Amino acid sequence: MREHPLFGASVDDDDLFSYDHDVNLPKLISLFGGSPSDLLRLDSNNGIRGVYANKSLKEGEILLKMPLSSCLRDDQPPLWLLEHQQQDQSEEESSESALLIQDWVTRLAACVLEKQHEQKIKKEADCLDRATQAWLKLLPSRSLLRQFLPIHWPESILSETNYMPLELAVDSAYFARAAPMGDLMGAIPSSYCNNGGEIQDTIEWALDLVQTRSCRCALRFSGESTGGDVKDLRVLVPVFDMINHSPEPNAEFFRKDDYMMVQALRDIAADDQVCISYGGSTVPAWRRLFSYGFCDTSGGDGDGFAVYEDDTVEIVLEDRFRFEVSPTEIPGELIQYQAQQAAGIDSDEPLDIELTPEIGLAIVDHLTNAAANSKRKRDEAINAATNSSEESLSVPLRLVGDLHESHRRTLLTCAGGLREYLGGQ
């Protein structure tokens, strides 16, 4: 499991925050209208902050129920966004533009901007307002998000990952973000920010929050399904965003009627951390880094790094042949490549091949060489981070080192498994 690293600065707000500036989670849950409020707490273990069980919990037990009325929902965008859409339509903008502004990312980011502005201008706060203000203050700052998310890294650091899938994903995301950025820049009221630069920074912050903290859910009916299509809903749920990810979660979240729920998937012991799965965007390791700004660094053999069966890593041979391996699988194309090398054939024509000990051991060598290269890259990144006086550079460099270490573990596990298989032949 791994903490989501993007927590904002702690703040003071009477009984919502303790003497050490940590949030009073039961109080926050109650102010949002959630229940039960006594099962969970915020705590830290070895510097990792997460949500922990106050007592033993049973499989199937509801750990948290949060009303949708306390959430930010993509199906309830602010009026100024809808008015901008109508203006675009009246000016006969292209149908593509009209569709883009209805994208859930744009709508949910607009909800974040609206809620932030509301809390700035309110003079009197009710219980929900107090909870919302505290929650917003706990969200990560733009500068923190920029340190952790690769889409904001300078090219000099991104290239240190030496990993083309990540670099291509960042390029695609950068250009894809232009659409919601343009829509929101054109729609947001000028009173929300002091100047154009601040508006752009604030919109980027909202888009980052939506990327890292939103949930996708469908309606789960109390009784039998009434049939028909059920549209997915994208939401930002207070407190849910404080629950960390694990590839082996002990809880799940879902929507039921007018509530977002967290339910135990198995028995959870008192003082254990409650973890959910962030979904398909967490595998392989580079996607975790790309989507959420972290690599898993727990569960390893004593030194903090995990190896997961669904992680994959590319190895590059002769600077042009790319093969994706996992801890338990190697592709047939890699066996084909090595068979052609052994036969001295330079052709794309497939051979009738089998994994012989000779071919297998050659592949083991490729894997261990790639692992050694990942170790070298990891050490370079960590040394650069240690020697950097700028946190804006040291944090990304450490994450680059984490990615290389994750790749190294995957490669060595794959090599070890293949070597064991060959020994059993």
The largest beta-sheet arranges its strands as 3-10-9-6
Q: Count every helix, treating DSSP H or I runs of 4 or more residues as helices.
A: 14
C-alpha Rg (nearest Å): 24 Å
Measured by DSSP, the beta-strand proportion falls in 5-15%
- Shape category: globular
Into how many domains do the coordinates divide? Answer: 2
**SSE order in H/E notation?**
HEEEEHHHHHHHHHEEEEEEEHEEHHH
Average pLDDT score: 86
Uncertain stretches of 5 or more adjacent residues:
5-14, 17-21, 92-102
CATH architecture of the largest domain: Alpha-Beta Complex
CATH superfamily of the largest domain: set domain protein methyltransferase, domain 1
CATH topology of the largest domain: set domain protein methyltransferase, domain 1
Number of β-strand runs: 13
**Largest sheet composition:** 4 strands, mixed
The assigned structural class equals alpha+beta
Ends: how far apart?
36 Å
Q: Helix share of residues?
A: 40-55%
CATH class call of the largest domain: Alpha Beta
Protein name: SET domain-containing protein
Domain SET: 26-279
GO molecular function: protein-lysine N-methyltransferase activity
InterPro entries: SET_dom, SET_dom_sf, SETD3_SETD6_MTase
Task: Give structural attributes.
three-stranded antiparallel β-sheet, alpha+beta, 13 strands, 45% helix, 425 residues, 2 domains, set domain protein methyltransferase, domain 1, 14 helices
